[in-house]
Amino acid sequence: MDWQKGERSRNVEVDSGRGGGGGFGFGGGRGLGIGGLIVLAILGWVFFKDPTALLDQGGTAGPTAPVSEPAQVDPQQRDFVSAILGSTEKTWGDIFAAGGRQYTDPRLDLFSGGVRTACGLASTAVGPFYCPGDEKVYLDLSFFRELQDRFGAAGDFARAYVIAHEVGHHVQKLLGVFDRVQQARERGAPMEGANGLSVRQELQADCFAGVWANRSEQRLHWLEAGDVEEALNAASQIGDDTLQRESRGAVVPDSFTHGTSAQRVKWFKTGLESGKVSSCDTFSGDI
To answer: Rounded to an integer, what is the distance from CA 68 to the centroid of its chain?
Structure first.
């Protein structure tokens, strides 16, 4: 991937170790609000830990809260993140403008160890995530090493897919998907499970990542041989069934939060091949 062609974003920030996204919770620090409840289903991106155990919802960090350290960021890695984020800004800005809407860029916070967000304190163990409360993507760059060493998903385009997926959640926030998911949840629709709202929301973010890949390639012509396979491999390696089989020795569909490997590949390819947001309706029918 010739990522040097990407437009650089001005919205990448390096966490100082004093916290990233303002106070805890929504609405004056009273804990998690609507967006926070939904984001709990999104956290635990890789490690299948209980997200509530990874977030401190109080006003001060307790003894088990994640330790926030000044992020140590290699300049080239920051430049890479800036190039990928910048390309998502251009892609989604154009898509929203074509639909008569304005796209608001998210910010991306590079942190180490732990970070304070509008959704609470989060640990590196959560993996990359998006917090709708402050409209930020949070990323500890050590995850990219984990992606390569633990999951065998190496390559620049695999890493770009991760960022584009999280930006996909921001697109969902702007399109009102988070609100509709919460409304469905309040009506009794399940969050977890093979057909749960969390899985459908995550698969849509995968599809949106595919849309970005399609549109950015049309504009920049930056993909090289093997790049698409890198992203598809990354999607496959982080499916619920694959991760559960490796970590638990068994697959438990009732606890799915992100979709199977086959589903994640399918929906990324759907967005990649179509380049259309309309192709990413994971909330209707079978997934």
So the answer is: 20
Q: Are 122 and 114 in contact (CB under 8 A)?
A: yes
- The tens digit of pLDDT for each residue in 95-131 reads 999 999 999 999 999 999 889 999 988 888 888 999 9
Phi/psi for 77 (5° steps) reads -65, -40
Distance CA 211, CA 226 (A): 18
Lookup: tokens for 67: 């330790």
**Is the model's pLDDT at 27 over the cut of 50?**
no
Q: What are the E-state strand segments in the chain? A: 12-14, 55-56, 107-110, 114-117, 120-123, 129-131, 136-139
CA–CA separation, 198 vs 257, rounded Å?
5
Q: Which residues pair with 107 in a beta bridge?
A: 136
Candidates 164, 16, 191; CA nearest to 90 is 164
Q: Poorest-confidence range of 66-80, 87-101, 233-247?
A: 66-80
| Residue 236, number of CB atoms within 10 A of its CB | 18
CA distance 272 to 287: 17
Number of residues that this document lists for the chain: 287
* DSSP conformation letters of 147-210: HHHTT---SHHHHHHHHHHHHHHHHHHHHTHHHHHHHHHHTT--SSSTTSHHHHHHHHHHHHHH
Whole-model pTM: value is 0.85
